From TrEMBL:
Major subcellular location class: membrane
Organism of this sequence: Amazona collaria
Stretches the record annotates as Disordered: 494-547
Domain of life according to the entry: Eukaryota
Protein name in the entry: Major facilitator superfamily (MFS) profile domain-containing protein
Length: 547
């Protein structure tokens, strides 16, 4: 069970009231951030024909958008433990438990762009600015004359705008809710699959009615609704909290500096050693500042390395199938609306799969073995992709979309919970940051590699087979290595218990030695000098410890 929720915000969150308006705005922001890159694939076929480009070139648009969105913001909020899709009162929730401080210092540790801007300006202007960037990016894309311009407008500018919408939404919910935070976050996160159900058919309708350039203009106007969502994020909290925190930190810093200087003056009779220590302290401070953002000691953590390697490998095949699903359906002769509806089917199953996985993962039978369950879900996802080429009809693609949505929801529901299970709450924030940085590389490269296979062989099945093999390999790797890790941890635990028993034996030997000394002191004064020599060092040691 997770520890009870506590608040260090300096005020009592209302747990309702205007907070529900914040939840509504957050569902819009989160929905666009997670859904827009997937729904944009509806335009791939037309853009390929207009610019005469290959599948790998068109896939770079979504890859750049996803990498920018995830790389700029996917760490969620430092200081938060995210347990995706627990169930509270029958709602699909994303339960967030706070650990450590909740001040600006903790929210700055992973240093994403959105964290810096939120700490400087607040959530409301950041989300509104992100919505403005999304609108500008899509409106500018309507006038693009080359694929490189689309990379910049759609991939980078729109992706950055989506990144600025995601984290501030999660932060605002944490400020407005405490007891009802699981329900509030569940409703906000539910905006992603709900938005995908509607946005994919809407994109197809806009394309048929206005063409891709007109659709981009309308999508730019639709994305400006993120500004409206951001306007709902009314600031909350004590007005002097930040000032008091800053003054307190400055006072502590000044006191620490004075104590350090006094200690250096006492311990160094000359100025030369003092300067050497100052240089050493500067180097140490530099390393400490770096470690404030990312804890690189995690690379010595065996479980973290296993998770990192497995997930980096998994993301090579994680997004490409959902990006090329609608184009593949069109390629085998299915009409545009039916192809877009496949994404809606996937999203509907995803809505059901995430909370169901949360219930199963939290059960007493699966919880101790959640790493194995996560490995199975990845391998199951890859198996679905391996069987996709057998689906040559629309009915077969519907069946594939159902199982793909189930597997996709299972992986997403346990993606962060498994990392938390390995590294613990204290190191979770840095672990998420390091994993996200590494995953962005494979998120960026996965779809273009799949498009390159389509260009080379002229068939989509090789792309699905590649993604399936990669994910099956990642799931198998995680299963085997986690089994090995658990065996080693059990062995280390036995050794630790054995070491805990050793001091008892040492204590018994010490007591026997003391009794022997007491007996020998009764033999006469000839041992008195020896006792004085033994007592002298003890006094000196005690004197040093007292100083």
């Amino acid at each position: 069970m997770s520890p009870p929720v506590s608040s260090d915000l300096g005020y009592v969150p209302p747990d309702g009231g205007w907070g529900w308006a914040v939840v509504f705005g957050a569902s819009i922001s989160v929905g666009f951030a997670y859904t827009f890159p997937k729904a944009f694939t509806i335009y791939f076929k037309e853009l390929q024909a207009v610019y005469s480009i290959s599948y790998s070139q068109i896939a770079w648009i979504t890859s750049i958008m996803c990498a920018t969105t995830y790389g700029g913001d996917f760490d969620l909020k430092p200081g938060i433990y995210t347990e995706w899709m627990n169930i509270t009162s029958g709602w699909m929730t994303a339960r967030l438990q706070w650990y450590g401080d909740t001040g600006a210092e903790s929210s700055r540790r992973l240093c994403p762009i959105s964290s810096i801007l939120v700490n400087r300006y607040g959530s409301r202007p950041v989300v509104m600015f992100g919505g403005l960037l999304c609108g500008i990016g899509m409106v500018s894309a309507a006038f693009c004359t080359s694929i490189m311009q689309l990379y910049i407008c759609v991939g980078f500018i729109t992706g950055l705008g989506l990144a600025l919408n995601l984290q501030p939404s999660v932060i605002m919910i944490g400020k407005y809710f405490l007891k009802r935070r699981p329900i509030a976050n569940g409703l906000a996160m539910a905006g992603s699959p709900v938005m995908l159900c509607t946005l994919a058919p809407l994109n197809q309708f806009l394309f048929d009615s206005f063409g891709w350039r007109g659709s981009f203009l309308i999508l730019g106007a639709i994305l400006l609704n993120c500004c409206v969502a951001g306007a709902l994020f009314r600031p909350i909290g004590p007005g002097t909290a930040s000032v008091k925190t800053q003054v307190t930190k400055e006072g502590k810093g000044a006191l620490k500096q004075e104590v350090t200087e006094d200690a250096m003056e006492i311990s160094s009779p000359t100025h030369l050693p003092m300067e050497n220590k100052t240089e050493e302290e500067e180097d140490r401070d530099c390393c400490e500042k770096i470690n404030q953002y990312l804890d690189f000691s995690l690379f010595k953590h065996r479980g973290f390395l296993i998770y990192l390697i497995g997930n980096v490998l998994m993301f090579l095949g994680f997004f490409a199938p959902i990006i090329f699903l609608a184009p593949y359906a069109k390629h085998i002769g299915i009409d545009e609306y039916s192809a877009a509806f496949l994404l809606s089917i996937l999203a509907i199953v995803d809505i059901v799969a995430r909370p169901t996985t949360g219930i199963i993962a939290n059960s007493k039978w699966v919880r101790p073995r959640i790493q194995y369950f996560f490995s199975f879900s990845i391998a199951f996802n890859g198996t679905c992709h391996l069987l996709c080429p057998l689906a040559s009809s629309y009915t077969g693609l519907i069946v594939y979309s159902v199982f793909f949505g189930l597997a996709f929801g299972m992986v997403c529901a346990m993606l962060f919970e498994t990392l938390m299970d390995l590294v613990g709450a204290a190191r979770f924030t840095s672990a998420v940051g390091l994993v996200t940085i590494a995953e962005c590389c494979t998120i960026l490269l996965g779809p273009p590699i799949g498009g390159m296979l389509i260009d080379t062989f002229g068939d989509y099945k090789y792309m699905f087979v590649k993604c399936g093999l990669v994910m099956v390999l990642a799931g198998t790797f995680l299963f085997i290595m986690n089994y090995y890790n658990y065996r080693v941890l059990a062995k280390e635990e036995k050794e630790r218990k054995a070491k805990e028993e050793d001091p008892k034996t040492v204590r018994t030997e010490n007591e026997g030695r003391k009794n022997w000394i007491k007996e020998t002191t009764q033999d006469g004064p000839e041992l008195e000098p020896l006792r004085e020599e033994q007592a002298g060092p003890k006094k000196e040691v005690n004197g040093i410890s007292e100083v």
